[in-house]
Amino acid sequence: MKHQYVIEEFKLEESWRLFRIIGEFVEGVDRLHDLGPAVSIFGSARTKPGTPYYEKAREIAALMVENGFNVITGGGGGIMEAANRGATEAGGKSVGLNINLPFEQKPNPYSNINVEFNYFFIRKVMFVKYASAYVIMPGGFGTMDELFEAVTLIQTQRVMPLPLVLFGTEYWGGLIDWIKARMLEAGTISEGDLDIIKLTDDPEEIVEFVKASKKD
User: Quick one: a GO cellular component term (predicted)?
Assistant: First the structure.
């Protein structure tokens, strides 16, 4: 019997599903263990080629490669495609961590290292484990999930305090204002937690920020 949702697989043959999970972890580690310094770039799968944010993601990825960093994305279309494209065009390692979904997600042709996942949580571990920084382009629910998971891991000191950059003040500015007006005012976060996130519209500033953090 085929289940619609991956989580339903745990209701049957749980032990065998655990082997499948372990297998995905092992494959991810084997494929990426010698990747070298890399930046994970997140963003919408729906952003079209030629649009401003697509071209900026492509530019940022190329700049990262030119400055000694490889690029990791979710391997799909939109921003992910743009970042993989920019990294490949610049001659770097361009990683696509593709997730098998019933809609929307199809591997893009620009990644030169591809790893397939069935489980989101394993895929997200790979994003975090092999990244020296996170660049968050405009995106939807999936991008928000990746953003706040990274913020939470840094805030709770479960990972090193790596650079986390939101690109696009017009897109993300309202979210930052809400965080300050609601979370900070209510005392659910601390003033210092705001320092985790950097907001910018300048690709060169992102590169310099990441490079400076690497030296520290």
Answer: cytosol
Smallest CA-to-CA distance from 70 within 125, 138, 131 is with 131
Whole-model pTM? Answer: 0.89
Domains and CATH numbers, the chain: 39-215 (3.40.50.450)
Helices 141-155 and 120-129: angle between axes, nearest 10 degrees: 50
**Rounded Cα gap, residues 30 and 38, in angstroms:** 16
- Which of 72, 75, 45, 42 lies closest to 147, judged by CA? 42
Give residue for tokens 């394993």: 122
Q: What is the pLDDT of residues 35-94, one digit of tens each?
A: 999 999 999 999 999 999 999 999 999 999 999 999 999 999 999 999 999 999 999 999
Alpha-carbon span 123 to 99, nearest angstrom: 8
Q: Is 81 exposed, middle or buried (0-12, 13-18, 19+ CB in 10 A)?
A: buried
* pLDDT tens, residue by residue, 178-201: 999 999 999 999 999 999 999 999
Cα–Cα nearest to 143, from 74, 209, 195: 74
Classified as helix, coil or strand, 18 is helix
Count Cα atoms within 13 angstroms, Cβ side, for 128: 20
d(CA 33, CA 10): 29
